[in-house]
Amino acid sequence: MSNENIYNPHVSIDCVVFGFNGEKLKVLLIERTIKENNGLYNDKKLPGSIIFADEDLDTAASRVLNELTGLKNIYLSQFHSFGNPKRTENPRDILWLENTTQLKIGRIVTVGYVALIKIDRKIQFKNENTTANWFDLNEVLKMNLAFDHSEIIHKGLEYIRHNMDIEPHLLFELLPRKFTISQLRILYDTVHQSRSDVRNFQKKVAQWPYVVPLDEMETGVSHRAARLYKYRKTK
Amino acid sequence: MSNENIYNPHVSIDCVVFGFNGEKLKVLLIERTIKENNGLYNDKKLPGSIIFADEDLDTAASRVLNELTGLKNIYLSQFHSFGNPKRTENPRDILWLENTTQLKIGRIVTVGYVALIKIDRKIQFKNENTTANWFDLNEVLKMNLAFDHSEIIHKGLEYIRHNMDIEPHLLFELLPRKFTISQLRILYDTVHQSRSDVRNFQKKVAQWPYVVPLDEMETGVSHRAARLYKYRKTK
């Protein structure tokens, strides 16, 4: 192995946190401000950070999410690592990194984690240096995010789509404990980027043993109240 | 971010290459010899290497596999990254790394790739410094491999098991172009660590539109010749 080819990159973690407000799929992003020669520049990035020397990747992911949002005990799944040497090529990203880490940064390989959380979970949106916020996924996909974070979000979405077919419980992590079939359909369609027919979807759900109708209806809605359902774990 | 916590690990690639000889699932391993004070020590490891400064992860995975086995144009899927700080703690592994790379090695985060290949593909088993070989998966799982390579193989196996249910074509990468139902069943059971009933399995396969019976039978077998099948890509 020729030695001069070898180079130590930094390794970081980036978390794609999805939430669902009953209508839209949301992504949790951190807003950052960069002081440039000609003023301040604002954009958004995923919650992420370089790993510490003695940290396992999973531990680093939990720490990062906790530091930036206050969230604890979140189930984070590692889904893909991103190591294109060009992912840290934007001078704005390098400037920001060097300001925030006080390190000379070259290449960074980042390990992507995904989490699905109920959107009403208490989040500490503001802390000393950063502000976190929920953004509509559809809007986010049009934004110019920091680094390759758009690609990471795309890949994270692909991962949950892929895995929901094998592990349908993932879908219910995003819904309130009691939900309507309409909420379930909207979420399903958002994740699958599909548009289900209302009746066909109802037939499909009737075959899911883990979706159980309750003796309860929605309250406080202006339209005709719909039946509520809950998710029941099956082996 | 406190600077003294930050440390640049090396990033490497490890490839879990599965093959199937019609009876058993095999894994491609590299044999290594370590000169220790009290003589030579032999063990086995996955084909792997530290990434180069200008290499994307996918590129590094293809290069590594090519360098160690001569294999080209192999479809490699990234499945998981391993970053436990303790994974490079064994003095034997450190000694070997420092001898082969001429680098001072601390921590290494490795990105795991999996490939499924036909076992009769031409492999350059021997090259200047290394010897590659196929080993029975069941035997490999009992071996004491280098680093955390046993864990990486376990996780790679889990990945193909998980993905074969969604992408059944993966299974057929491992079979000869024309195969018997018995070969398919043995492979299926090996991957799923199950033991299918012969009749039930035949019923199951009859429902797979992508398994097509041929007007051909096995030849050169001592038992009653079985019908041959082929895999046909569907949408």
Layout: helices, strands, pairs:
The structure is a homodimer of 235-residue chains.
Chain A lengths: L9 E11 L4 E12 L2 E7 L2 E3 L6 H13 L7 E6 L8 H11 L6 E9 L14 E6 H4 L8 H16 L4 H4 L5 E2 L1 H12 L5 H9 L4 E7 L9 E5 L4
Parallel strand pairs in A: 1-6
Antiparallel strand pairs in A: 1-2, 1-4, 2-3, 2-7, 5-6, 8-10, 9-10
CATH superfamily of the largest domain in chain A: Nucleoside Triphosphate Pyrophosphohydrolase
Write down how many β-strands of chain A occur, each being a DSSP E stretch of 2 or more residues.
10
* Form type of chain A: elongated
Q: What is the CATH class name of the largest domain in chain A?
A: Alpha Beta
Oligomer class? homodimer
Strand % of chain A is: 25-35%
What number of domains of chain A? 2
CATH topology term of the largest domain in chain A: Nucleoside Triphosphate Pyrophosphohydrolase
The biggest beta sheet of chain A is recorded as:
7 strands, mixed
Count, helices of chain A: 7
Mean pLDDT of chain A: 90
Architecture per CATH nomenclature, i.e. the level-2 architecture of the largest domain in chain A:
Alpha-Beta Complex
